[in-house]
From TrEMBL:
The lineage of its organism: Bacteria, Bacillati, Bacillota, Bacilli, Bacillales. PANTHER family: DIACYLGLYCEROL ACYLTRANSFERASE_MYCOLYLTRANSFERASE AG85A (PTHR48098:SF1), ENTEROCHELIN ESTERASE-RELATED (PTHR48098). It comes from Paenibacillus aurantius. This is Alpha/beta hydrolase family protein. InterPro entries: AB_hydrolase_fold, Esterase-like, Mycobacterial_A85_antigen. Gene3D superfamilies: alpha/beta hydrolase. Transmembrane segments: none annotated. It comes from the Bacteria. GO terms for molecular function: acyltransferase activity, transferring groups other than amino-acyl groups; hydrolase activity. Keywords: Hydrolase.
Length: 260
């Protein structure tokens, strides 16, 4: 595998920002790595960080590079700060950045596929919210979206992080808006036929567990294609390290879908 630390200018944000990228590399002599590179344009996982972290955290807390090596899967990990993947009321246009500019720039820099069936998004906590927001808002671009211990009910964040909430959403009502995962799921045209595959998990001791249950039930009521898993666990990296491996097993990779 090849690892890139990429600094670049964002027109959407008006500043220089960063992403970390893992690319498949077929090797014969690398010790301890089972690697695969399956073509000129790589299937891609956009992997999103949580509220208190940055684009380096998945590499620092998990073995994500080793986990994706045998899959021929590229991984793009952008920095979005404490933005909730949103065009902030008092801050940067991080939704425009992550939903429009980032994929276009990443594909201009690296050999990444633009086919829907080759693109996936996953994240933890705030990043789990961002992953489902991307999957439900842009279902024509992503074949799958995975939320690990995700913030399922973002409107509830007003009491958990009031200063961030004001900077992100201002006075705009969140419930029922384009920021609300429940509303986004309800608004999918054609319901399950239009949705990406969804994976949702949360530890039973996590402070976000109850709201994840409510979102799970909502998705099932809409008959959306959701795989839900729970097990003992809290809001911590031991849990997320295990579950990102499960997400990678679950992803509908083209070779896997073709039975190769």
């Amino acid at each position: 595998m090849a690892l890139f630390s990429c600094n670049f200018f964002s027109e959407a944000l008006g500043l220089t920002t960063s992403m970390t990228v893992i690319l498949p590399q077929t090797t014969r002599a690398q010790i301890g790595m089972d690697t695969l590179s399956g073509g000129s344009k790589h299937p891609t996982l956009y992997l999103l960080h949580g509220l208190s972290d940055d684009h380096t955290i998945w590499l620092r807390r998990t073995s994500i590079e080793r986990y994706v090596a045998p899959l021929g899967l590229a991984v793009v990990m952008p920095a979005v700060h404490r933005s909730f993947y949103t065009d902030m009321a008092y801050g940067g246009k991080y939704w425009t950045f992550v939903s429009e500019e980032l994929p276009a720039l990443a594909r201009s820099f690296f050999p990444l596929s633009d086919r829907r069936e080759d693109n996936y998004v996953a994240g933890l906590s705030m990043g789990g919210y961002g992953a489902f927001k991307l999957g439900l808002s842009c279902p024509n671009r992503f074949a799958a979206a995975a939320s690990l211990s995700g913030v399922a009910d973002v409107a509830g964040g007003k009491t958990r992080f009031p200063q961030d909430f004001e900077a992100i959403f201002g006075s705009e009502p969140v419930e029922g808006s384009r920021h609300d995962l429940f509303a986004l799921a309800s608004g999918l045209p054609g319901s399950s036929q239009a949705s990406p595959q969804l994976f949702q998990c949360c530890g039973t001791e996590d402070f976000l567990y109850r709201e994840n249950l409510r979102l799970r039930d909502h998705l099932k009521e809409l008959q959306l294609p959701v795989t839900y898993e729970e097990e003992p666990g809290s809001h911590e990296w031991g849990y997320w390290d295990r579950k990102i491996q499960r997400v990678l097993e679950w992803l509908p990779l083209p070779a896997r879908e073709a039975g190769v």
